[in-house]
């Protein structure tokens, strides 16, 4: 294999290029990214960056890194077409031949069919965040469409800076897609305690010059509306090339598409959950980077065990760090260990652990969930639900 091309120069695309070099790939690596500049981290865009505005600190690697590692970074150029037969990527008038292609095209904001939505601002790219930061320079009445992680992180920063903030969420609770009802309720208290108005079960039906209108006809006055209603995977390039798509570019347990010369990773890829076998798509730094490492290892060393990394995620809201280890399904049982830790169980077996400001328990949970037989309820009960003690006991056994 001589030439590897990566489309998408975000968190996962860059990691793939770096991991290929770390695994000893000596051929040409080309990283094509639609955004201008160097690859950067997205998580601080809804957190520290809104406060400090320090864009340079977000760069994942300095420019010199790319020269030193002979990674050709083609930034500000969108890949327009994949020619699978000719094994070429067409981008910005140039043709990039490949022996293996890695798709790391990420996601873009979901745009529900809400009249006037063009008035709302996005928070996905550094450019979006820079614009929003500018908007926060004077007092604002802000309406946020969506009570998920990004909407709430933005709400916490904006409220702490003294703006009037309303969050309108269509679901009956916050972060409902991935969080237990117990911690949804805890975070509702946090945001309401900060003075944010949180409207649950209240879908937005229009965005107007005056603010937002809710489905029940009521209006919320706002001079700044933020769209944070989830994302959709960027799959068009793959679909047009005839690759299978199923809520993301469909890959197998080796993160390989139906074309053995093309892999996909991160936010844009749907892959079999190593625990349940169901097809899932994760939006996290962990998934993007672990996928990238797995693909690089497979390309250099050949297929080994299928991808099986334990998912984990974090979100910073005010001074609360939420951490989730594992992946709970909507029907999973919750077992609160206290106000700041919730165990999730599927069929009596630990599926996820949610914690607030408790990095130690989070790390123990990741270890336990990584074992081939995660703890059962009986095992957890026997050790008084003390994850550290259980991890120790298992290590000694
Ligand atoms: C505001 C915000 C806060 C977040 N906070 C957290 C957090 O706290 N914790 C966490 O784990 N995750 C967080 N995330 C999610 C995390 O950033 C993503 O899961 C991660 O970046 C996914 O990496 P990726 O490489 O799959 O996609 P991305 O990093 O999104 O990169 C995809 C890149 O592909 C480019 N691209 C798309 N199509 C083309 C094309 N045709 N040609 C060339 N380039 C193309 C895009 O422009 C983009 O730059 C956050 C995301 C946002 C937006």
TrEMBL record:
Domain of life the protein comes from: Bacteria
GO CC terms of this entry: cytoplasm
Needed co-factor(s): FAD
Matching Gene3D superfamilies: 3.30.390.30, FAD/NAD(P)-binding domain
Molecular-function GO term, any one: oxidoreductase activity, acting on NAD(P)H
Pfam families recorded: Pyr_redox_2, Reductase_C
Domain FAD/NAD(P)-binding: 3-292
Keywords (A to Z) from UniProt: FAD, Flavoprotein, Oxidoreductase
Leader sequence segment: none
Domain Reductase C-terminal, residue spans: 312-390
The protein, known as: Pyridine nucleotide-disulfide oxidoreductase
Species: Pannonibacter phragmitetus
């Amino acid at each position: 294999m001589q030439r590897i091309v990566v489309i998408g120069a975000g968190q996962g695309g860059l990691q793939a290029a770096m991991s290929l070099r770390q695994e000893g790939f000596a051929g040409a690596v080309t990283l094509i990214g639609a955004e201008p500049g160097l690859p950067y981290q997205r998580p601080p865009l809804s957190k520290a960056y809104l406060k400090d505005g320090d864009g340079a600190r977000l760069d994942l690697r300095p420019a010199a890194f790319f020269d030193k590692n002979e990674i050709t970074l083609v930034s500000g150029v969108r890949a327009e077409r994949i020619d699978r037969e000719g094994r070429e990527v067409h981008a910005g008038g140039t043709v990039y031949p490949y022996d293996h292609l890695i798709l790391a095209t990420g996601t873009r904001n979901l745009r529900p069919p809400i009249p006037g939505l063009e008035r709302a601002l996005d928070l996905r790219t550094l450019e979006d965040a820079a614009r929003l930061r500018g908007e926060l320079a004077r007092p604002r009445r802000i309406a946020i469409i969506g009570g998920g992680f990004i909407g709430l992180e933005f709400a916490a920063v904006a409220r702490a800076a003294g703006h009037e903030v309303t969050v309108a969420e269509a679901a009956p609770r916050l972060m409902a897609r991935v969080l237990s009802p117990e911690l949804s309720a805890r975070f509702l208290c946090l945001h309401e305690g900060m003075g944010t108005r949180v409207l649950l079960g209240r879908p937005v039906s229009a965005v107007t010059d005056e603010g937002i209108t809710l489905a029940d006809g009521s209006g919320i006055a706002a001079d700044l509306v933020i769209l944070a209603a989830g994302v959709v995977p960027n799959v068009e390039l793959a679909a047009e090339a005839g690759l299978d798509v199923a809520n993301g570019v469909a890959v197998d347990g080796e993160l390989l598409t139906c074309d053995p010369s093309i892999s996909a990773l991160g936010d844009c890829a749907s892959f079999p959950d190593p625990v349940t076998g169901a097809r899932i798509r994760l939006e996290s730094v962990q998934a993007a980077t672990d996928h990238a490492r797995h693909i690089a290892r497979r390309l250099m060393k050949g297929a080994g065990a299928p991808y099986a990394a334990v998912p984990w995620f974090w979100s910073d809201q005010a001074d609360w760090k939420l951490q989730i280890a594992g992946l709970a399904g909507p029907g999973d049982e919750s077992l609160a260990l206290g106000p700041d830790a919730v165990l999730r169980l599927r069929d009596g077996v630990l599926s996820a652990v949610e914690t607030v400001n408790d990095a130690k328990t989070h790390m123990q949970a990741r270890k336990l969930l990584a074992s081939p037989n995660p703890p059962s309820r009986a095992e957890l009960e026997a050790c008084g639900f003390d994850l550290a003690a259980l991890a120790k006991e298992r290590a000694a056994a």
